[in-house]
Amino acid sequence: MKSKLIVQKFGGSSVANTEKIKNVANRIAAAKRLGYDVVAVVSAQGDTTDELEQKALEITAKPPEREMDMLMSTGEQISCALMAMAVSHLGLEAISFTGQQVGILTDEIHTKAKIKKINGQRIRKALGQGKVVIVAGFQGVNADQDITTLGRGGSDLTAVALAYSLKADVCEIYTDVEGIYTTDPRKVKEAKKLREITFDEMLEMASLGAQVMQARSIEVARRYNIPLHVRSSFSKEEGTMIVKKTNKLEDIVVSGVTCNKNEAKITIRSVPDKPGVAALIFTEIASAGANVDVIVQNVSEQKTTDISFTVPKPELSKALAAAEKIAGEIKAGEVNSDKTIARVSIVGSGMRSHQGIAAKMFKALAAHKINIEMITTSEISISCIIKEVQVDAAVQALHAAFELEKIQ
Ligand code: ADP
Ligand code: ASP
Ligand code: MG
């Protein structure tokens, strides 16, 4: 009978040092000894990726993106070689591969490439020979065979994409916490581990700042309905299943609180209030390559408006330059930016069918004297832009207000 295939992904903190690599090797070996064919995807050790990025920034503020990918992908190459050695040392046959060697083909967009195709030939062959396969996460190659990377947190995507392409029976994401919690368990001690969460909720939480899973990996898992088991590499406890539909009779109204400190706000004052002006502004910002998110327009009586919007902090300088240029062209007033803001969000599928959730959120923030600067909603989330210094208090307040510590 053909063995079942398991894809296991181990994050940076799970492979941060020799002892941890040996711990992970033991888990991989245990799965193999249970009779699984094992493909393990590994991230760079600890803070390696950040350190590599820092080295580049010490040389130039704007490193060429192709060279950034050459550099950033090396962290995973180290981990996969060490992991293959550690598994071999346990008496199993193991082989490590880079993204290129297993044929992870991507588009041309360096530093956030999209996977186009996986030619898993070498993986299948090695599995057929009884070997444990260790794959370097976060990387692929473009049509010119240049190394590309899949965006920060991209090893999650490597694992999900391999699980899909190899038709794995199980996909496990091992990390440094025991699963997906109602909020970051390192920040809020009342955070509760969820037994299950839907792809939709996880995607929303990831997009709104919960670091634990890369948002793009959840999009792929949702598209191909690949259930993910997120669990700790340091304990045997069951973690959280990310699935299409949970077993709950009714959706939980609010299942998580997230925050994102990586946004900044730009305001253009005295914008002429006439048709086509917003289109001009946001076309300019988009062509500068900045991703605009929350937009708020305050209508005034003098035929002008103030327009505020948020962008990711790393894109602030290019967005600001574009905003200043277009403000001059349309004869708007001054342009300001504010890096001291953050976003706090609540997420839950049950919001689709419950009223009064926004009111409860605003009340909880008000009770803690937290001023809301901007608001945005989706079908299953509500976000408020507030002052960054208040965001940790806001997360605590919302976690308590929605009694998330009581979630079963
Ligand atoms: P890895 O190195 O395994 O990829 P990450 O550092 O990317 O791990 O993600 C795990 C971290 O995500 C946890 O240590 C935790 O602090 C953070 N986190 C944020 N929000 C949540 C959440 N809702 N549930 C679990 N962990 C969360
Ligand atoms: N090492 C990469 C990062 O830190 C990819 C990953 O860990 O998933 O973003
Ligand atoms: Mg991660």
User: If you consult CATH, what is the topology of the domain at 5-176?
Assistant: Carbamate kinase
The portion of residues assigned to helices is 25-40%
Question: CATH homologous superfamily of the domain at 5-176?
Answer: Acetylglutamate kinase-like
Instruction: Write out the distinct hetero groups bound to the structure.
Output: adenosine-5'-diphosphate, aspartic acid, magnesium ion
- The CATH architecture of the domain at 5-176 can be named as 3-Layer(aba) Sandwich
Radius of gyration: 23 Å
**First-last Cα distance:** 39 Å
The DSSP helix count reads 12
Written account of the structure:
The chain is an alpha/beta fold and 408 residues long. The chain has a domain at 5-176: Carbamate kinase, CATH 3.40.1160.10. The protein is 33% helix and 25% strand. It has twelve helices and 20 strands. The protein has helices at residues 18-33, 48-59, 65-72, 74-89, 121-128, 155-165, 199-207, 215-223, 277-287, 316-329, 357-367, 391-401; strands at 5-10, 37-42, 94-97, 104-106, 115-118, 132-136, 139-141, 147-149, 170-175, 196-198, 228-232, 240-243, 256-260, 263-272, 295-299, 304-312, 335-338, 341-347, 374-378, 381-387. It has an eight-stranded mixed β-sheet with strand order 3-6-2-1-9-11-12-10, with helices on both faces. Strands 13-18-20-19 form a four-stranded antiparallel β-sheet, sandwiched between helices. α11 crosses α12. It binds adenosine-5'-diphosphate (ADP), aspartic acid and magnesium ion.
